[in-house]
Design brief:
Layout: H1 2-9, H2 14-22, H3 24-35, H4 40-49, H5 55-68, E1 71-74, E2 77-80, H6 82-103, H7 105-108, E3 127-130, H8 138-145, E4 153-157, H9 163-174, E5 178-184, H10 185-192, H11 195-203, H12 207-212, E6 219-224, E7 230-235, E8 239-244, E9 256-260, H13 263-277, H14 283-295, H15 298-303
Parallel strand pairs: 4-5, 5-6
Antiparallel strand pairs: 1-2, 3-9, 4-7, 7-8, 8-9
Protein name: MarR family transcriptional regulator
Domain HVO-A0261-like N-terminal: 17-99
Organism: Haloplanus rubicundus
């Protein structure tokens, strides 16, 4: 939200934006004049009828707007300038961001601060999925249910080992869907130490994952050495489910996610995903790097 505010203030005067936010009369006058030019007397009369500013206030605000370049006088009537329209649209945009921040606060409060590029203003039509003490798996269920939909391309980020997710996405991996998933390295270590996972891989015909370090069919698994801040599912560049991961400190009982078809959120999610995919390594390479790192650790060698 602060980033949006600072970006807006690069284009318009910070103090003017603050004053517009504080004064309903200033907003009313700009909005009215943006609709149609009017004389001061007409504005004052309309204001009295609609519970707006008094005649004295109208004259004072109009004169100030003219002096600052937000309004100009033409043939006795006053109209909003391009600068005035920019000020009003900036206020409207910031108000939208604030409204969405309040409405989606359960989700946004756990979103890492370094994800400041997230388009908060695009959340208006997004659905919020919330866990609750008596329903602690609502978010996980949202990620599993999306696997039941039809799509030709799937991209995802996951940071947990979950048999529920594995079973839900097996049909996706077995289909013709193009799949690309990014995991943190710690998941790879946990998976290859889990005999049930190895049996699962063998049972469902993914022997090539173990043998060659690549999953079967048209799928790509990539691993990064750093913690991942979100769980993410992107379907066909049209739908996104996004939730902060446990690394953010969010308690499972109060975790939340957003489900969105907004193009700006989809675009942001795709860019975010690709930034980690570009840093990822296939499983065998990631395992070899882990083994090499362990072999070069004097304390680990001494312990062994």
């Amino acid at each position: 939200m602060l980033k949006v505010y600072h970006d807006l203030c690069r284009e318009i005067d910070r103090e003017a934006l603050v004053q517009l936010a504080r004064s309903k009369h200033k907003r009313w006058i700009l909005q009215t004049l943006e609709t149609v030019p009017a004389r001061k007397a007409t504005l004052a009369s309309t204001g009295q009828q609609q519970g707006g500013p008094s005649r004295t206030t109208v004259h004072r605000i109009i004169d100030a707007f003219v002096a600052d370049g937000y309004v100009l006088e033409r043939g006795g009537a006053y109209e909003v300038t391009e600068m005035g329209r920019l000020l009003l649209s900036s206020y409207t945009e910031f108000r939208t961001v604030i409204a969405q921040a309040l409405d989606k606060r359960e989700f946004l409060r756990w979103l890492p601060a370094d994800l400041e590029s997230f388009p908060v203003d695009a959340l208006a039509d997004s659905k919020v999925i919330r866990n609750a003490p008596k329903q602690p798996h609502n978010v996980l269920s949202a990620f599993t249910r999306i696997a039941e939909t039809n799509f030709g391309r799937f991209r995802g980020i996951t940071t947990i080992m979950s048999p529920t997710l594995a079973n839900a996405y097996y049909p996706v991996l077995s289909s013709e869907t193009q799949v690309s998933v990014v995991f943190p390295d710690e998941i790879l270590s946990q998976l290859h130490a889990d005999h049930e996972f190895i049996d699962f891989v063998k049972e469902y015909g993914f022997e090539s994952y173990i043998r060659d370090g690549q999953p079967a069919r048209d799928s790509e698994f990539m691993f990064v050495p750093e913690p991942l801040p979100v769980h993410l599912a992107i379907c066909d560049d049209t739908r996104v489910i996004l939730a902060p991961s446990p690394s953010t400190g969010v308690p499972e009982s109060s975790a939340s996610a957003i489900d969105s078809n907004d193009p700006d959120i989809v675009e942001w999610a795709a860019t975010f995903f690709e930034s980690f995919r570009d840093k990822g390594r296939p499983p065998v390479r990631a395992l070899l790097e882990q083994k090499m790192a362990q072999g070069s650790d004097p304390q680990r060698r001494a312990g062994d």
